[in-house]
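Key idea: predict the complex, not the pieces.
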Amino acid sequence: MAEEKLQRLEVVTPERKVYSEDIRFVVLPGSEGELGILPEHAPLVSALKIGQVRVQHEGKTLKIAVSGGFAEVRNNRVTVLANAAEREDQINLERAQAAKERAEQRLASGGSDIDTARAEAALKRAINRIKTVS
Amino acid sequence: MASLRDLRRRIKSIKSTQQITKAMKAVSAAKMRRAQENVLAARPFARRVRDVLGRVGSASVGLKHPLLAVREPQKVAYIIVTADRGLCGGFNANVIKRAVQEIKDRPNVEIINIGRKGRDYFRRRGYNIAQQYVGIGENADMGLTGEIAKYVMDKYAAEEYDEVYLVYSQFVNVLVQKPAVQKLLPVEPPEGDSDGKKVDYIFEPDAEQIMGKLLPMYVENALFQALLESKAGEHSARMTAMDNATSNAADMIDRLTLSMNRARQAAITKEISEIVGGAAALE
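Result:
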């Protein structure tokens, strides 16, 4: 079999570069549904929702929690731009759980629309992190 | 010549000043290292956002978005990023000077100050300050930049501002910080790829919504980046300034010690000659 074609995946946040490797297959949490990207994909720009980037390479799967953002696919390069992203082995489960409880309390106590929207988003992010680990 | 006591007192006071500058230098050096790491870690994202925006922008020419609308600049806002504290050489002065240069020919300007030093300067001179953010501390966070970005974007979309500029200090390296002016709004998507080829993207959901999210992200990130650069620059400027101050103090101590020794010697010589003179008078 000819050598496997690979593509470069980069996950970048404003604070740092989270991931940068040549990989085989990646699933992105697109806003309109999950997108599986193989090498030689047509140019694409997609909004992302809160969810997981799943990387498959050499039989292993790595999950990266992202909190929305964008993905650009071009010339065998997949660039994920997210405000926050954590690899599954970098997530602090206790913190995520604490964040989840905080968000739930805020939702329960009610408040203005903005607070509710914020708490909901925080809750989604926390749940996403917890799901990514387990 | 100053008296021996005066000289001793001055040397002592300079020594304690030197201790302070030395300590400040050490603190700045540590903070600078962290701030520098932050800047360098943040640059890839800023570059990627700019790249993507450039390519998406050139792939969707003719797209209308409030943040892209170019208007005759009647009312212009300047976001000026300075440090909260002084004692960092010409760091704040350079940014302020650059900002004043930009502002002075504009009739209708509003200022948004980030950092106490800039705020104090423009407030004292009666400029029109719309917003001020002081005491933001060591780490610029996305919450704050999001808030500021939202403020100017809302104002821009409501046509209350016709242009928004960002004046900050670029961190070139430890010794060089360059005041920079960047046009924040309207967003001018950078040129696409150097080969000038347009990429035929598939947009998901569509170009308009992508731009609607990408543009605020770009503005927010530009601000975030400016804060990081400014922070790193501040600490390196302070470190350099304090290093200079410490070595100046050392020079001064050397000179004063020399004159103190001279004065002491002169006093001793005088005393001896007085004793000799006195003894001679008795014979």
